[in-house]
């Protein structure tokens, strides 16, 4: 997700408390489980902020494994809450859901530009959306949010574990998606396992750093922004 980081006063502590409590409650509903069957449709979603007050969310639906685009939808709306580190999913998820509702067909699994359980409270945007939709989701992020890892090998397909520094809990996997470029951070969201998240990420690579579902969501976000100008 493309986060807008505005300057300004600290957020309302009561809002932070309430959202943190809600996030902790949602975390108890997260499940890691294998997919019931091989997906036929996979979605990618991404959000950006055309202005400080506006969020644009895109969902692209693709056939799997061919990755042919079936649908692409978007929604533009007001930013619902201020920027609060660790609680960014509350800023983005409502608008992503509005875009998702516009799909004529529904995916079997959703790849989210962001983190799944690789989050300080194990509730990144992919886990958040998965719980709200009760759908299999996983996150593919460009930067680490939490955890520790050793750099994977420099060739495409190299993988190393992302773990909690204190407990050793597996939070995700660090994947080199293209030779000699910075790796991706892949983690399960809801109703998905790490093995599935990693396998689908690798299966969706087509020569770019980002896998096709989130790469195309990002591409169409830029195209849809032109319609807003």
TrEMBL record:
Belongs to the endonuclease V family. The gene is nfi. GO terms for molecular function: deoxyribonuclease V activity; magnesium ion binding; RNA endonuclease activity producing 5'-phosphomonoesters, hydrolytic mechanism; single-stranded RNA binding. The keyword Nucleotidyltransferase does not apply. Its EC number is 3.1.21.7. NCBIfam families: PRK11617.1. Its main location: cytoplasm. Gene3D superfamilies: archaeoglobus fulgidus dsm 4304 superfamily. Mg(2+) binds at residues 46, 113. It comes from the Bacteria. One of its GO terms (biological process) is DNA repair. Keywords: Cytoplasm, DNA damage, DNA repair, Endonuclease, Hydrolase, Magnesium, Metal-binding, Nuclease. Its cofactor is Mg(2+). This is Endonuclease V. DNA repair enzyme involved in the repair of deaminated bases. Selectively cleaves double-stranded DNA at the second phosphodiester bond 3' to a deoxyinosine leaving behind the intact lesion on the nicked DNA. It is found in: Cytoplasm. It catalyses: Endonucleolytic cleavage at apurinic or apyrimidinic sites to products with a 5'-phosphate. GO terms for cellular component: cytoplasm.
